[in-house]
Prior knowledge:
By secondary structure, the protein is mainly alpha-helical. The chain has helices at 20-46, 52-66, 68-76, 81-108, 113-155; strands at 3-5, 15-17.
Amino acid sequence: MARRLSHSSADQFEDRPTDQKSSQTSADELEDRLIDFAVRIIKLAASLPNTPAGRHIAGQILRAGTSPPPNYGEARGAESRADFIHKISIVLKELNETSIWLRIIKRSEMLKAELLTDIMEENGSLCRIFTASLKTMRSDLQKRKMRNGKRQTENN
């Protein structure tokens, strides 16, 4: 089994044996899922009414809803664990903002609620994935810092 730097988990910067194909496939699948979500946001924004409120919300949801895929791509090329965590937190922040805009669209009845159900469910699912990932990554980073601190104390 090859040793490489994994780009799909909090351990991406740890040189360890990995199943390269499955970890890369998982990260690629998540990236594709984010791209599909962004495409759905583009289509949703285009269907909003051509009113001052509709144009404003379209612009806002386009910005927030289409930024997770490129931000995730940036995270996959992060230079450190901390950089990876920071970039993934941006992905989550934009997904959370998109969720709020979707709820505003639904409550204002700019689009029929049934047209929003699937995209709102996907948004929630993506938020849960990135929330869980961030929780794990932050916990792992904290454990590493504690272990490194212990080693430094023992070496003094």
